[in-house]
Amino acid sequence: MEKSIKKYFPIFALPTFLAFIIGFIVPFAYGIFLSFCKFTTVTDWQWVGFKNYTRIFYVNGQLDTTFLHSIWYTCLFTAVTVMVINVIAFAIALLLTKGIKGTNLFRTVFFLPNLIGGIVLSYVWLMIFNAILQKYDMTIVTTQWTAFWGLVAVVCWQQIGYMMIIYIAGLQTISPDLIEAAKIDGANSFQMLSKITLPLMMPTITICTFLTLTNGFKLFDQNLALTGGNPGKMSQLLALNIYDTMYGTTGWQGVGQAKAVIFFIMVALIAVLQNKMTTSKEVEN
Amino acid sequence: MKKKLLSALLSVAMLSALLTGCGDAAATDSTAPAAEAPAASDDAEAAAATGEGSVYLLNFKPEIDDQWQALAATYTEQTGVPVTVLTAADGQYSTTLQSEMAKSDAPTIFNIGSATDAQTWDAYTYDLADSALYNHLSDKSLAVEYNGKVAAVANCYECYGIIYNKTILADYCTVDGAVISSVDDIKDFDTLKAVCEDINGRVDEINDALGTHLTEAFASSGLDDGSSWRFSGHLAGLALYYEFLDDKADLTAGEGKITGKYLDNFKNVWDLYTNNSAASKATLTSGTYNAEMELGMGEAVFYQNGDWEYSAFNNPDNGYEVTGDDIAMMPIYFGVDDASEGLAVGTENHWAVNSQASEENIQATLAFLEWVITSDEGRSAITNDMGLSAPFDTFTGDFAPNNKLAACANEYAAAGKTSVAWSFNATPNVDDWRADVVAGLVEYTCNGGDWSAVETAFVDGWANQWALAHEE
């Protein structure tokens, strides 16, 4: 059996592999190629070498800081959301595995925001924020920081429920025997959390931090609908900045593509690093 | 064992899904005799056989999508030439156009907004110089010429200025201490300013006297993305217009360097708008203001916008108190040459024909466009159903534009005023430049900053974006 599986492996893998090539490898390679071209439509290109890449930072003989600004703004945004989402989601998951009354209802309610699309969600929040801020003669896009915290609030509200579900699933895999043994040994609840629960939860934490990290970097819908990059371009996260370059500036499709390549490399590096870091802390159950 | 069977099953399922996915396109034509599909493909085949080609219009104005679909169906019924109309979502035109153009069945008619667009799509614009469309164009300056060819032809012209509630304004003239005795007295910026300040300053007194429920003179000047173009585009257009006029530059193609010499006038008008409005300056970016509604519900007297607003006010479904008969439009008196300034007339809607389409499709497209502007069905659809003012010499009599705000433009022109050209059409990298100007306006208006932010964005930003947009 083992042998025949090996033998037919290519045939079984072929369809998926083909789909992967058509749906991922080819567009990806073509995208990298296009970042070295000037193009209007993707089939009509002209090779320009590294010009697109230099243009990201250096325009008309001046340093252009919009992309750099959106890089650090995005990094900060991701750092804050990863922390907030994971800490709160973990805390709620702990609470909702304690067997309090109405656990299922709470789980459903916390998960619900995740079912609403980002654009709709952000428009609803936009109204809420502006209605409140109006009292203080401000709007969500008064400064880049109001925009920042607005985005953080919406994204956390949306993603906490989802991460909570993953954490709950993780918590339920911890064997009750271990907990009981620790209790008998006289561990207090803080010791139980830091010595038993957290180490055993590392695989789940790896997944959740990875998801929130990449979600943070790739955030687009909420950014577009909630702030639209305003004021100026100060609240543009990377994805929106790339989109804006692609469609907003005449003849800059290639530059947008080049930004996207840099964006990919950055996110890939950070995600690999994060994965290494958290997996190294994982323990055998 | 069970696991392996499962994975084998999954692979088979995936394979079959993949195969059906790939086979789908081929299957529709050859193996579905009973479905509706063959009817359409027969049409296409018949058309191709007789060399008629097909037409694909990528429509720019979402509000008239239904009307275009109906008109396209009528044409197909009469001639058998298939006409596809696709409408891009509001604000998504360039995105949609870019992806549609890369397809093998690319649009044969698409919209060009300005000379900048013509530059972007230079390789795709067909020279319309010999077309019936261009021949019928009554004002040849409404065509976009680029790279030695007529790249696109306007399909409607529009005007903008200050829309005002003439009923309330006429009543205001009867109030004690009114600054003017008739609406016609407003002939320059200073008078307009005096009237606005008077109305806004004693709005309660005026409400008591007239039984109105005004809250402000000027409707809110929102700086959110849904409204800021009225100022970074249209209002800024006047500053550009007078500067181009002084420099004897082409009024809609512009020049590479501007000095912003009329920015003070821009600031005066902008201050007039924001100081005489009930909207709090700091919250203009919120997007919660609806200026159209403020005028429509009789809360404001003045509102800077264009004649496309006419249908909104004239449509009883919107529930506005104000009707099409209550409103008129005056020029945005800019304080430069108010005595001879008319409304700003121009367009961002130009038809371009895709030069990379097949020859039959190009011919079919030109024939379709000619039919649209010469046949009764086409002319009626444009004037009556879509409510557009078409710039062609075929639109006379029953088909003359019936938009009362557009009629104001003609009245001012007839009275010897010079229509202001849409100079903002020359803006290089429109979205970027405007975003920076809006950022400056926000800084100045909402955050109490300095006007110099606007100046920098306006002047330096222009030179910068121009260099970018016009290189090579």
Descriptive labels:
heterodimer, A: 285 residues, mainly alpha, MetI-like fold, two-stranded antiparallel sheet, 11 helices, 4 strands, B: 472 residues, alpha+beta, D-Maltodextrin-Binding Protein, domain 2, 2 domains, 5-stranded mixed beta sheet, 4-stranded antiparallel beta sheet
> What is Rg of chain B?
26 Å
Number of strands of chain A: 4
Would you state the CATH class of the largest domain in chain A?
A: Mainly Alpha
Helix content of chain B: 40-55%
Strand content of chain B: 5-15%
Name of the CATH first level of the largest domain in chain B? Alpha Beta
Most residues in contact, chain pair and counts: A-B, 45 and 46 residues
Characterization of the model:
The complex is a heterodimer of chains A (285) and B (472). In chain A, 73% of the residues lie in helices and 4% in strands. Chain A has helices at residues 2-34, 51-57, 66-95, 103-111, 118-134, 144-172, 176-184, 189-218, 221-226, 238-248, 253-279; strands spanning 37-39, 45-47, 58-59, 62-63. In chain A, the strands form two sheets. Chain A has a two-stranded antiparallel sheet with strand order 1-2. Chain A has a two-stranded antiparallel ribbon with strand order 3-4. Chain A is globular. Chain A starts with a helix and ends in a 6-residue tail after the last helix. The relative contact order of chain A is 0.13. Chain B has 472 residues and is α+β, with helices and mostly antiparallel strands. Chain B folds into two domains: 48-157 and 347-395, 3-Layer(aba) Sandwich (D-Maltodextrin-Binding Protein, domain 2), CATH 3.40.190.10; 159-346 and 407-469, D-Maltodextrin-Binding Protein, domain 2. Helices cover 47% and strands 12% of the residues of chain B. Chain B has helices at residues 2-31, 37-49, 65-79, 93-101, 115-120, 132-136, 166-172, 189-201, 203-210, 229-247, 263-275, 291-296, 310-314, 359-374, 376-385, 404-414, 430-445, 452-469, and strands at residues 55-59, 83-87, 109-112, 143-146, 149-154, 158-165, 302-306, 327-330, 341-346, 350-353, 418-421. In chain B, the strands form three sheets. In chain B, strands 6, 7, 8, 9 and 11 form a five-stranded mixed sheet that branches. A four-stranded antiparallel sheet of chain B has the order 3-10-5-4. Chain B is globular and about 70 Å long. The interface between A and B is large, with 45 and 46 residues.
